[in-house]
Design a protein that fits this description.
The chain is of the alpha/beta class. Helices cover 34% and strands 21% of the residues. The strands form 4 sheets. It has an 8-stranded mixed sheet with strand order 7-8-10-9-13-17-14-15, sandwiched between helices. A 6-stranded mixed sheet has the order 1-6-5-2-4-3. A 3-stranded mixed sheet has the order 11-12-16. Bound molecules: ligand BES, manganese (II) ion and zinc ion.
Amino acid sequence: MLAVSINSVPPAEVGTALLFVALPENPNLSGIAGLDAATQGALTRSIEMKDFRGSRDEMLHLTGIVKGPRRLILLGLGVVTDRRAAFKRAATLAARNANRLGVGEMVWYSGQITPEETESITIGLIAGSWEYADLKSPAPEAERKKPLERAVILTSNTDDSRKGLAGGQAIGSGQSLARRLAMMPGNLCTPEYLAETAADIAKRYSMGITVLGRKEMEAERMGSFLAVAQGTPQEPKLIVLEYKGGKPNAKPIVLVGKGLCFDSGGISIKPAQGMEFMKFDMCGGAGVLGTFEALGQMQPALNVIGIVGATTNMPSGTAMNPGDVVKAQNGKSIEIINTDAEGRLVLADCLSYAKRFDPDVVIDAATLTGACVIALGHTASGVFSSDDALVAEILAAGKRAGEPAWPLPLWDDYKELIKSDVADVKNSGGRPAGAVTAAMFLKEFAEGYPWAHLDIAGTAYSETDLVTIPKGPTGVPTGMFIEFIRGRVR
Ligand code: BES
Ligand code: MN
Ligand code: ZN
């Protein structure tokens, strides 16, 4: 991961291969007179000639500076309403470009910044430099570019800035881990691998860990989770991490993640087109693990439990069939209408399992429905809860994290759609309100504690290359989980 540090040298004097100067729309040069002088007025002229206007994502690359930075890129912030969001976006873009240029290191300057802004910039720089190259052969020596390994943020070296830097590094580590796990192909990122990753986190930060396999889940009578896992030869894993930063008797926040390392749909098999994206069906679980990586570094004063339901959904002679009825841990019977509605089956037993921790609140995150993508696109995650205050808290956390969410209903009127002829509930209500009926199904199992569900099917990964996010995982819901937790520290 990118190593970010802070330094208080003036931008005109910093010896670097590449300096980014972030400026708002219609910039004035009062803050960077020194730099303007070092470029013999190139900055003033660029702005006067309107080569650079400071519009969002705009970049102007200048070279030929005699001393100080060897390259300078003016980077537009646009009209800034939310400074943290604008800096994060620009820093992501800066690091992405520095990585492409192959210069190995970069420096960021954006005038006076607060510790919180330092944190946002750090998060952006780490996100922008993130890539998954583990499985590619290295390019021939002559064409090889240096990956971006170091970045320096210019700011006054106060203790507070260091706190901002540390927070950004923790969140950046969590998001980078979540993205790596998500990007790893299903044959490498198996339920077993997720369990090993959790064990590694637990070991490094002295957290508690429990992993249930098939046998242990049978003993727990988790017939719903096991119905999904019965079609795969891989050992399913119910992974539980326990972070204890609060008082021993303080009720924990419980985070639950869907961890389908591959979802073929099972007997209700998916079409071949785009099926490869279903390696991303563990992004909820990856977000839980990423959050625990960050928790280990941040050590906030409260208790958090993470639960990941990890398996794959495969068609086979032993797989569950449409029409089958299974019994979940909480005793409810489920008619399986569609084996591709497997995430809710896995989460049902994870949510029942959560109850033993006497949670203060439970939030689950899952790439649960294509219907949520239709409803909210790739911009916002869906939030479902009967607790309006909890919804507001989650929306605010998402906003702070730059991972927006938006509420969808969870009204009893929708329950009708998942009534079964033979069982207590069925696992698919068909196409109408597909994201809502999935949440309504989960509600049957999230009993005895305040609960919210996040549908991240549209936000956890991108199928196309975007300005700040390359094709692949976004890190969602890691940032929102961390902000939610932070918001509850008193
Ligand atoms: N993992 C999918 C949901 C999904 C779809 C995630 C697209 C990301 C992008 C989930 O397991 C699924 O297949 N859901 C079905 C439910 C249906 C059968 C009731 C869906 O959304 O079509
Ligand atoms: Mn599915
Ligand atoms: Zn799925």
